[in-house]
Fold this protein.
Amino acid sequence: MTKLCQDALEILNKDFTRCDELQVDSLEAVAKARYILGVTAEYLYMSCVSDDEQWRKPETRNALDVLFTNVEALCTAGHSRSPALYLLKQLVKRYGGHSIATIAQNEELSWIVPAEFQRREASYLFQGVCYIIINNFLVRTY
C-alpha cells in the first residue's frame, strides 16, 4: 500500500508536457491513488469508530500510521487538491457526512479536512451539516 501511495504521489507531481506521457502515467497514478484513497477511507473510519480490538493492536496502529502518513502526503503535497477531495468524497459516500467530523476529532487525523474548510467552514463541519457543504464543493469540483 505504501509503495502504491508513493508511486502515485511521484507520478502526480510530475510535469507532463507530452500528451502520450499524460495519458499513460497520469492514468496509472490516478488509478493507484483512487484505490489507496478508497481503502484509506475505510481504514480511517473503522479505526475511529470500531470497538474491535484488532484496530487497537500496536502492529495494526503502526501499519495504519504509516499508511495515513503516506496518504496525508498524497492529499496535502503536490499541485492538485483532487486526492484530498476524493478521500472526502469516499468517506461521505460510504459512511455519511458525519464520518468526516468523527475522524477529524482525532487531532492526528485532522488533515483530512482541507485547509479551506478549516478556515471558513470549521463551525459547520462540527454542527452536522458538513455533508451539504462538502457535497456542494465536490459537485462544483467534479
The CA atoms of residues 24 and 31 lie 11 Å apart.
